[in-house]
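Fold Annotation — chain and its backbone

Encoding — discrete vocabulary of local shapes
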Amino acid sequence: MNEKTVTARRGRPPKIARDQPDTRESLIRCGTAVLTEQGFSASGIDGILKQVGVPKGSFYYYFPSKEAFGQEIIAYYGRYFIRKLDRWLLDETLPPLDRLRALVSDLGRGMARYDFKRGCLVGNLGQEINVLPVGYRRQLSDILQQWQQRVACCLRLARDAGQLPAGTDCEGLAEFFWIGWEGAVMRARLEASARPLQRFADGFFAGLPRLAPAGISNSVTI
């Protein structure tokens, strides 16, 4: 290989790399895993590129900046989590409150699978919000609202099914759920244990007996 050839390739990907959506997707997936463990500020592009096997000079063929890369990761995570919520909360084989219990159990198992090293990407970035690009605040807030709306919908279904009385504030309960759950996730990472998740779940569902008809179980196991 002559000097001219080496110079032309140094720091640049083959032209076909620009048209490889799989590589771009791999960078986003890897970035998601890294950010759920390390957050935005501590995450370096170099480590992500190395894991995916992409030359450093190739990054800007796929994303115009680290900020844009972060926005793509947030959007990707938001879509992933919406699919998870819908899988459990729209499961018509279960009564509505059991769907929410099943979701909580699944989320707990997901944290345990990674030894509680990975948290919620949205929650992680929310803790860094003052040092993040301005546009991230709205993006993260919008995703949380989407999650909250889905839990509120499930609670309304529970109300319609007679598991909760007519006057139940489903929107308020859904907001309370996510505020509490995000705090429990942070504590679970700190303790490397499911105990905070279990404590929150027990407290949330135990708050429903006065709303639910007698005989409805509010227990959940993580």
Observations:
- Residues 1-19 have pLDDT under 50 and may be disordered.
- The first helix runs from residue 3 to 9.
